[in-house]
Write a structure and sequence with these properties.
9 helices; Nonspecific Lipid-transfer Protein, Chain A; alpha+beta; 5 strands
Length: 176
């Protein structure tokens, strides 16, 4: 009888250890420290509109402007879900142009084209994008006032696992 109780105790203890270990592993996988260990793309690139008039910036608007804007909103903090190779993918409509971005270990890659299976879609105009690039404090205002928008395409679980929901909440002031 005592051996059965001892065996039950050992089994319960092992289950408890596994649960605690899993909880700690999940905490470290999803913690902000781990998420942001990729490079800070914004600090490594120069503001493409820095020395340009608004008219020149509109004429020269390209992938570098989109890269800087995405870095400004914190896209370099996005990450693959744990144990997955499913990288974060963003499609961005800027006036009549379509750009896509993929984030891999904190590095944002931008191309001028559509992307299959985007996680979110951002819509704005070149004029709004330039305003946001010039003034980082204006970014959230643009989204909150409806001048720019974010469409959440993937499931809430996927968006949470990749880090999108924190950025969405910061930009829109809404809780998802």
């Amino acid at each position: 009888m005592k051996k059965k109780n001892f065996a039950k105790f050992i089994i319960i203890f092992l289950i408890f250890v596994v649960l605690i270990g899993s909880g700690l592993a999940a905490y470290f996988l999803f913690s902000e420290k781990n998420v942001s260990r990729g490079r800070d793309t914004q600090s490594e690139i120069i503001n493409p509109a820095r020395d340009l008039s608004d008219e020149k910036a509109l004429e020269q608007f390209d992938e570098n402007f989109v890269l800087y804007l995405l870095a400004s909103i914190g896209a370099s903090r996005l990450h693959n879900p744990p144990l997955s190779s499913n990288t974060p993918k963003i499609e961005m409509f800027v006036s009549n142009d379509i750009y896509n971005a993929e984030i891999n270990t904190g590095t944002i890659s931008v191309r001028k084209s559509e992307i299959a299976k985007a996680d979110i879609i951002i819509r704005t105009t070149k004029e709004e994008a330039i305003k946001m690039i010039r003034d980082k404090n204006y970014i959230a205002q643009s989204f909150r006032e409806g001048e720019s928008s974010i469409e959440l395409v993937e499931s809430k679980t996927t968006l949470l696992a990749k880090g999108y929901l924190k950025i969405y909440n910061e930009l829109t002031g809404e809780k998802k």
